Structures are given as structure tokens and as C-alpha cells.
Amino acid sequence: MTTAFAASAREAGDPQLTPPRRGGRRRGWTPYLLLVPGLLWLTLFFIVPLVQLGSASLQSQWPGAPGYYYRDVNVGNYVDALSSYGVHFLRSLAYAGLATVLCFVIAFPLAYAMAFKAGRWRNVMLILVVAPFFTSFILRTIAWRQILADDAPLARTLNALHLLPGGHITETWVAVVAGLTYNFLPFMVLPIYTSLERADPRLLEAGRDLYADRLTTLRTVTIPLAAPGILAGTLLTFIPAAGDYVNAELLGSDTSTKMVGNVINSQFFTVLGGYPTAAALSISLMILILVLVLGYVRRFGTEEVL
Amino acid sequence: MATNTREAHGDLVLENVTKEFADFTAVDDLSLVVPRGSFFALLGPSGCGKTTTLRMVAGLEQPTGGRVLIGETDITGTRPHERPVNTVFQSYALFPHLTVRENVAFGPKRRKAADAMRLADDALELVQLSHLAARKPGQLSGGQQQRVALARAVVNQPEVLLLDEPLGALDLKLRRQMQVELKRIQSEVGLTFIHVTHDQEEAMTMADTVAVMNRGRIEQMGPPERLYDLPQTAFVANFVGQSNLGVGRIHGTDGDFIVAEVSDTKVRIPKQRSEIHDGQVMFGVRPEKVRIHESQPVGTGNDVRAVVTDVSFTGVATQYLVTVPSGANWTVYEQNLDVEPISLRPGDDVWLSWDPTHAFGVPVDEDGRKAALAEDGA
């Protein structure tokens, strides 16, 4: 903008420069014009609903008329929500955190193998990582229910070996975390793979040449080189996992493994008069994740990402 | 094991080292000794096995046969971090996430040196980059990165320092500067430098000893002057400087000379300067040893008629391309010393002469024939 104005001011003083003026002006506006569709979309489907959600979270219920609300600044909704469902928040963070760590533990060696060792199998491995996306998220999670079911081979074998304390895999936190890990794994693999694939293999050789054994090279060279990908992968895994409710719904129990997402879901759709609570929970979750992510990025962030 | 091999010291010895990959032999039964503290160059065209040799010394590749020793210590099979060897990589391979100082301190830190940072600062001073210590490698120019890479290797005081085409990415002027600089640093630190390059001028300016490699073998090894003055194979004659070659048959001797006939012209080669003493021989003489005359010279011993095909004036010298009776194209350098230069044009008939003590004889092999043929085509 500034340059466009400066340019036209200069041109006004110099008649010889008049012809390129229109071109210069058009160039000045083009980026903003290109932004319009995106901004419209964002305004309609993100900013407006967000404001609405914020205002819903502060509404009060008409006395004696369940399901009807009036505009208010009722902070009590937040107090209620957080005091009644604090445990669900903690559970969400714990499950999402555990799933993120598991995803990293599985994804890093996989991405490393794909980037440095796979050779001509690299593309096959990439396709295998992405292939699950060809089936719906819900279907895949339902499939996990079958895999983990009590009469399926896995649970049977574990039961026969007396390795399954409660007798079930489904209806436990293990199933929920496993589902989250499975569903978000590609979001961890792909960014890490991308940053490892970009790294010059000679850097790893240089590490070994400079007296670092394999493990030290991994710690001091490989992982720092993959840092942007690790950061992106953990965010792409943790954020949606913390707000997820499908895995807890389909693989978890009705009582002991509910996450915030499940509470919001039922407050919105099944509990009469639950709207303000659901909205307050949503906003709280958003703020909580935002604060955690900002802290995380400030601590581990590299200039390449943010 | 690790500390033992890491403290090895002495000459670098390669004993019958062979490296076979799935479908070809990169290094073929190579043996050599690099004396401690010398500046050694491995010179050869790309694909000759010089980089593979270097990587085997570094431990980044393992030989499929033979042994690598430093002094009395066998380091074959040890890992790169267990060897007192450091590499300056072709692409520098500086760690982008570390500052210049941290890059240089990387090695000392891994070896648990208490004063890693001070060592790094000293090394940066040696390459005159102290003022850039806090920068990231991405913020440096190619020449500066090159020096950081050098400092990062030198700081460890390795027994052997390997340089893999270290100047390849630099422009000509910077390359000349770095050649002088590398030489200075080598004599200052007194480490064994092994320099891999395909640039014969670079190898000759810097190294005490040059080994010319071709197809996984060493063709000839020696001080640069000797390699240039008396090549032992046609490949060396052409790869180290230029040579005017001709295939001939030996007829007899004349005092200290062998007499050979090349395309009906009798040429003489000093006995001690020929690898071959009967049968077919490849005769050679360096372009600057050949004089060009407008009429037949008297009493020079070796002379041959030729036709000028090209004249290029380069300032200090004039380069003539001439066709000799065998059909080969020869090159002649004439220093522009005379006030009145010879004025020759393409198509002129000339006589060439040379002092026969400068001639050399090498075996006739495929490389030589090819080289002679290539000159025909030129």
C-alpha cells in the first residue's frame, strides 16, 4: 500500500512516468484482490461462528423455560463448565499428549528409514503412509473397534496369556490412545519425513567424521535438522487429538474415558439447556490449546516454522 | 578400541586396498604411503576412485579388501568417529543449525575437550574468521564457508586431514587465494593433508607429492615437477599438463639415446627417460619444449615438418596448433620474448624442433591411442 501511494505521488510530479502508472497501481492492489475469497471464507465460516460461540458461552437461560436463552455476560457458565468437567480437560490433554509422544516414537524411525534407507521403496512407503486417507476416518476407527474387540484374536490371545488385567481392550484408555495414535500418525510422519529428506546426508557423515557416534549424531545433528518437521508434526497431532471425540466415542467407555470433545458433543446435542456450557467448554479448550502451543513454540520453535 | 585407534599416529599407509561395488571396482589393489606431515594430492578424472579412496581413509566406506593403517595401527573396519581423521567435505557440510563457532567446536566437544570453545576460537583465528564466529553458516559466502569447514577439521589436530575437492565451488580468483592459504595453513599446523582434486594445476601448486589416479589405480606418483617432466604413462602425459604424442617403433640406439621412427621421422629419446626399450613406444614432448621455425633449423637433432592450423595469442605466449606428418595435432607454446614476433598464419608450412633430452617415451596403451586419436580429431 505505502509503496503504491509513494509511487503514484512520484509519478504525479513527473509527467514522463505517467504511462506505467496504471500498471503500478494494479500491481499494488492485486495481492489484496487475491486475498478476498479467502478472507470472505474465513469471515463467514470462522470469525462469525467464533463470535457467535463466544456470545453463546456467556448467555443465560430463561428461568422456567429450558432451552431458551437471553444475551448476558454470565461468567458462571465458565465456572460451571470448568468445575464440572475439569477432569475431562486433563484427560484430553493426557490422551493427546500420550498419543503425540507415541506418534513421534513410531514416526521418527519410519520417516528416517524413508528418507535415508528406503531407496526405491521410498515411494511405496509414502503411499502406504497416506493410503488410510482413502477410507473415512470414522470407518477406520470402527474397524479398530473390531480389531480390539473382546472376541477378536488380539484380545483373546492376551486374555489367554493373562496379560489383560481388565479383560477388555475396548472401553479402556488404551484403546482411545491407540486410536488417536493410529489416526494422527500420518500427520507426524509426513512433516518429519519432509525435513529429513531435505537434510544433506553429508551433514550426518560430517557428524560421524567429527567424533560423534551414531547415537550422538542422531541427537546433535539429525534431530536438530528435523526440528521444523518435528515441531509441525507434534502440533498437527496434538491440537486435533486434544479436541477429538470420535476415538473416545467409538473405542472408549461411556464413563471413564470421556474427553472434552465428548462432553461438548453431548452438551450441544443431547442435554437440554447445555448450549452455554458447551460453548464455554469450546472456548476454554481453544484458549487452553492456544496457550500450550504458544509456550511450546516459544520454547522449541525455530525460525523456519513460525 | 575407540581411544586406541583415535590416538594412532604416523604415516598413512594403504595396503592393497580394494573397493568393489555391485557392478564395478572403484579402487583396485591400491597401495601407497603418505608420510606424516606432508601435503599429498590424489589427482584424477571424475570416477577414477579418488573420492572413494578418501572415504575409505575417513571410514565412511569400508574397503572390500586390503588394510588402512596409521603408523602401526590398523584402522580398517573402525568407524569414522574412532579415527584420528577429519574431512573437509566438497559441499562443506556445515551444520546449518549451529553457529560458526559451534560448528568448529563440534569435534572438540565430542572428544570432551574442556576448552572446546577456546580451541574453536583459535582455529577461527587461523582461518581469519574470528569476526564471523556468531553467524550461522547460511549467512556466509562460499569462500568463508570453505574456511569454516577447514577450521572445523583443523581444530581437532587430526593425524590425517582429508580435503575432498575443497575449492571446487569457488571462483577462479578465490580459488587461487585459497590455494595459497591452504598451503600456509598446512605448513603452520604441520598436519598430513590429503587433497583430492581433478584440477592438475591445483594439485601441482599445493602438493609435495601427487598421485595420479585412473580407473581405481595409481598411474604414477611423485613430486609435481617430476610428474610433469617425466610422465610414465600416456594417461599422465595428457592429464598432467599437455603432451605432444606420437606412436613409433624403436629402431636402435645412438649413444645415450633410443632412436624410434614415428611416421617416417626419426626421433631420439634419452634412454633413462623411456619406459620402453624395444618394440612400440609412445614418443612425447611437452608443448613449451618445442620450437617453431619458418625454415629448417640446423643441427637441432630432432626436427619435423608441420602445417599451422591455428594461432592464438595469449599475451606472454603464443599458442600454435600444428598438424605433424602422422596426422596428429600438436601444440606449441612460444614465449613472446622477441621484439619482432614470428608472424605465422594458419596454412603456413613450418619446422618444429626440440632438444631431444626433453623427449620421453611411455608404453603404448589404449589411453594413449585414444589421446592421440582425440588430438587427431581436434
Automatic annotation (TrEMBL), chain A:
Bilayer disposition of the protein:
Multi-pass membrane protein
Localization, per the record, is: Cell membrane
SUPFAM superfamilies to which the protein is assigned, alphabetical = MetI-like
The record's section on Pfam families has: BPD_transp_1 (PF00528)
Segments carrying the region annotation (Disordered) are 1-24
Ranges for domain ABC transmembrane type-1: 89-296
Under the heading PROSITE patterns, the entry gives:
ABC_TM1 (PS50928)
- Chief localization class? membrane
Source domain of life is: Bacteria
The record, for InterPro entries, names:
MetI-like, MetI-like_sf
For this UniProt entry, which segments traverse the membrane?
32-53, 93-112, 124-143, 173-196, 217-239, 278-297
Q: Which UniProt keywords apply?
A: Cell membrane, Membrane, Transmembrane, Transmembrane helix, Transport
Q: What Gene Ontology cellular component terms go with this record?
A: plasma membrane
**Coiled-coil parts of chain:** none
UniProt record similarity statement: Belongs to the binding-protein-dependent transport system permease family. CysTW subfamily.
Q: What is this protein called?
A: ABC transporter permease
From TrEMBL, chain B:
Residue ranges constituting the ABC transporter domain according to the UniProt record: 12-240
Tell me which UniProt keywords the record has, alphabetically.
ATP-binding, Nucleotide-binding, Transport
**Which GO terms of the molecular function aspect are on file?**
ATP binding; ATP hydrolysis activity; transmembrane transporter activity
Keyword Lyase in annotation = no
Give the domain of life.
Bacteria
PANTHER family documented for this protein: SPERMIDINE/PUTRESCINE IMPORT ATP-BINDING PROTEIN POTA, SPERMIDINE_PUTRESCINE IMPORT ATP-BINDING PROTEIN POTA
Listed name of the protein: Polyamine-transporting ATPase
What organism is the protein native to?
Terrabacter aerolatus
